[in-house]
Amino acid sequence: MALDTVKFVEGLIDNKYTHLCVVPCSFAKNIINEAINNDRIEYLPAASEAVACSIAAGIKMAGKNPIVIVQSSGLTNMASCITSLLKPYGITFPILTSWRTYNEGDSEIQHQHLATELPKLISAYGYKHHILDSHNLYNAIAQINDSNKNHTICIIKKDSFDKVELKSENTLDLSTYTPRSKFLGVLNEKFKSKDVLFIGTTGNLAREMYTFMPDTKNFYMAGNMGGALSVGLGAAKSGKKVIVCGGDAEFVMHMGGLTTAGRFAQEVDLTYILFDNEQNKSTGGQNTYQGHLDYINIAKNSGFNCVDYVIKTIDDFEFIAEDVYGLKFVCVKCGLDDKTPRPPLGIVRVKKF
Question: At what angle do helices 180-191 and 204-212 cross, to 10 degrees?
Answer without folding.
Answer: 50
